[in-house]
From TrEMBL:
InterPro entries: MATE_fam (IPR002528), MdtK-like (IPR048279), YsiQ (IPR047135)
One Pfam family per UniProt: MatE
Protein's cellular compartments: Cell membrane
Descriptive protein name: MATE family efflux transporter
Organism of derivation: Paenibacillus nanensis
Phylogenetic lineage: Bacteria, Bacillati, Bacillota, Bacilli, Bacillales
Length: 480
C-alpha cells in the first residue's frame, strides 16, 4: 500500500514538472532573473545608505563602528553561507535536471544546518562583543559603541543565517521576485524604526545607536517569518513543518562538495576586507569613516552588475543541470558584456557627483577629501570587480568551486591583504595605496577565472559523463 502511494505521488510530481517546464524556461531569462535581484540589492543599498545617513546624525564615530561591525558580521556569516550557497547551486542544478524532490530536500537541509550554525554565532557575538572588537584593532575610543552594537545585531545573527538559507533556496527555484518584495517591506520597517529610535519620534525612545541595532534585528525577524511561509511553498510538493527534520547524507555531501570551497573563497574575501579595515583603523578614525562612506557609494556602482552575476549563476546552473552546455558557456560572455557596460557608467556618474553626495553624510572636510580622492580609482576598480563576479559565478554554477577557491586564497592573501599593507602602511600611501592593491587583486582573480572558463573543463567533463550514461536517450541535449 505504501509503495502504491509513493508511486502515485511520484507520477503526480512528474506531471507537475512536465506541465511547468515550458513556463519555467520562459522565466529563466537573464533579465527576468536579474531585475528582481537588482531591486532587492538596491533596497539593501538604500537600507545601508539610510543606516549610514541616519547614524551620521549621531556621530562619525558611530558610523565608523557600524562600518567596522558590518565587516565583522560579513566574516562570521561565511560559516552558514557555505551551506546556503552550495545548496542554492545544487537546487538550481537539480531543478534543471527535473529532480524536484532532491531540490526540496536540499532546501530543507540548508535551512536546518544554517540555523544551527547561526545560533552558535549569535551566542558568541552576544557574550564577547568588546573582546572581539578589541582583538580586531578597533580604536579604544570606539569600543563602548561597538560593545552595544555588536552584542545586539550580532546576537541576532541566527536571523541572518535563516534569511540566507531561505532567500537563496527561493531565488534558485527561479522565483527572484519573492525575496525582492520581502526586501521592500523590511527596508520600510527598518527606516521608519531607525527614524524613531534615533530622533525619539513616532513614540519611540531616543536610543541612538542602540535603537539602530534593535531596528535591524526586528526588521530581520519580520522578514524571516514571511520568507519561511514562502519557502514552505517554493517547490512542487509543499514543505510541512514536520519535514524540517529530513536529512539525506548523500545530498548533504553534494552540498558540502560544492559549498565548502565557496565558504573558503568567501572567507578569504571577507577576512581580507577585515584586514584592510584594520589597516585603515591603524591610519586613523577619519580614514575609517571615509572608507565606510565609500563602501556606500561603491555599492551603488556595482550592485546592478552583481545582480546580473547572481542571475547568471542561477541560469547557468539550470542550463548545466539540463545538459545545455553550449548555451551555458555563451551565456557567461553575454552577461559579462552587459555588466561591464553598466558598472563603468555607474562609476563615472558617481565620480562626477561624488563630492556633494559625500557632503550629505558628513561635514568633516578631511573625510570628504579622502573620499573624493578615491572616486577616480573606483572607475578602475569596478570593471575588474565585474569581470571577477561574473566569471567566478559562472564557474561556481557548474561546480568548479575549488578552482575559484584556490585563486582567491592566493590573490586575496598575497595582493589584497599583503600588498595593501605594504603600499598603505609600509610605504605610507594610505588609502590610495590600499585601493591600488584592491584593484590589482580584482583583475588578477578575474583574468585567471576567465582563462579557466574558456577551457570549458567542467562543461566537457559533464557532457562526457552524460554521453557515457546514455543521457541523450532521455531527451537531454548534449552540447559540448
Amino acid at each position: 500500500m505504501q509503495e502504491e502511494i509513493e508511486r502515485t505521488a511520484a507520477v503526480r510530481i512528474h506531471a507537475l514538472e512536465d506541465g511547468n517546464l515550458t513556463e519555467k524556461a520562459k522565466k529563466l531569462t537573464l533579465w527576468a532573473l536579474a531585475w528582481p535581484i537588482f531591486i532587492e540589492l538596491f533596497l539593501q543599498f538604500l537600507l545601508g545608505a539610510a543606516d549610514t545617513l541616519m547614524v551620521s546624525r549621531i556621530s562619525d564615530d558611530a558610523v565608523a563602528v557600524v562600518g567596522f561591525s558590518n565587516q565583522l558580521f560579513s566574516a562570521v556569516t561565511t560559516l552558514f553561507v557555505t551551506v546556503a550557497s552550495g545548496a542554492g547551486i545544487l537546487i538550481a542544478q537539480k531543478l534543471g535536471a527535473r529532480k524536484s524532490e532532491d531540490a526540496r530536500t536540499i532546501g530543507i537541509m540548508s535551512l536546518t544546518v544554517s540555523c544551527t550554525i547561526g545560533l552558535a554565532l549569535s551566542v558568541v557575538l552576544y557574550l564577547f562583543p568588546k573582546q572581539i572588537s578589541s582583538w580586531l584593532q578597533l580604536p579604544d575610543e570606539l569600543l563602548p559603541l561597538a560593545e552595544t552594537y555588536v552584542s545586539i545585531v550580532g546576537g541576532g545573527m541566527v536571523l541572518v543565517a535563516v534569511m540566507s538559507a531561505l532567500s537563496t533556496a527561493i531565488r534558485n527555484t527561479g522565483n527572484t521576485k519573492g525575496p525582492m518584495f520581502i526586501a521592500i517591506g523590511m527596508n520600510v520597517v527598518h527606516v521608519v524604526m531607525n527614524y524613531g529610535f534615533i530622533f525619539g519620534e513616532l513614540g519611540f525612545p531616543e536610543w541612538g545607536l542602540k535603537g539602530v541595532a534593535l531596528s535591524t534585528v526586528i526588521s530581520r525577524l519580520l522578514a524571516v517569518l514571511v520568507l519561511l511561509f514562502m519557502f514552505l511553498h517554493a517547490f512542487v510538493r509543499p514543505i510541512r513543518l514536520r519535514d524540517l527534520k529530513q536529512f539525506d547524507r548523500g545530498l548533504f555531501g553534494e552540498i558540502m562538495r560544492i559549498g565548502w570551497p565557496l565558504g573558503v573563497n568567501m572567507s578569504c574575501w571577507v577576512f581580507s576586507q577585515m584586514a584592510i579595515y584594520a589597516y585603515i583603523a591603524m591610519i586613523g578614525s577619519s580614514e575609517l569613516a571615509a572608507r565606510t562612506y565609500m563602501n556606500t557609494l561603491e555599492s551603488f556602482c556595482f550592485m546592478l552588475g552583481y545582480s546580473i552575476a547572481l542571475a547568471l549563476q542561477i541560469q547557468i546552473a539550470h542550463l548545466f543541470g539540463a545538459g545545455r552546455m553550449r548555451e551555458a558557456y555563451k551565456t557567461a560572455y553575454r552577461a559579462l558584456g552587459i555588466g561591464l557596460s553598466i558598472v563603468i557608467v555607474n562609476a563615472a556618474i558617481i565620480y562626477m557627483i561624488g563630492k556633494p553626495v559625500l557632503g550629505l553624510f558628513t561635514k568633516d572636510e578631511a573625510i570628504i577629501a579622502f573620499g573624493v580622492s578615491l572616486l577616480g580609482l573606483n572607475i578602475l576598480l569596478q570593471p575588474g570587480k565585474m569581470l571577477n563576479m561574473a566569471i567566478q559565478n559562472a564557474l561556481n554554477a557548474v561546480g568548479d568551486t575549488r578552482f575559484t577557491m584556490w585563486i582567491s586564497l592566493g590573490s586575496l592573501s598575497i595582493i589584497a591583504s599583503g600588498v595593501s599593507y605594504w603600499l598603505g602602511i609600509g610605504l605610507g600611501w594610505g588609502l590610495t595605496g590600499i585601493y591600488i592593491a584592491m584593484i590589482l587583486d580584482e583583475y588578477v582573480r578575474g583574468t585567471l577565472a576567465l582563462i579557466r572558463w574558456r577551457g570549458r573543463k567542467k562543461l566537457r567533463e559533464a557532457a562526457g559523463e552524460m554521453s557515457e550514461g546514455n543521457v541523450s536517450a532521455s531527451g537531454i541535449r548534449l552540447e559540448a
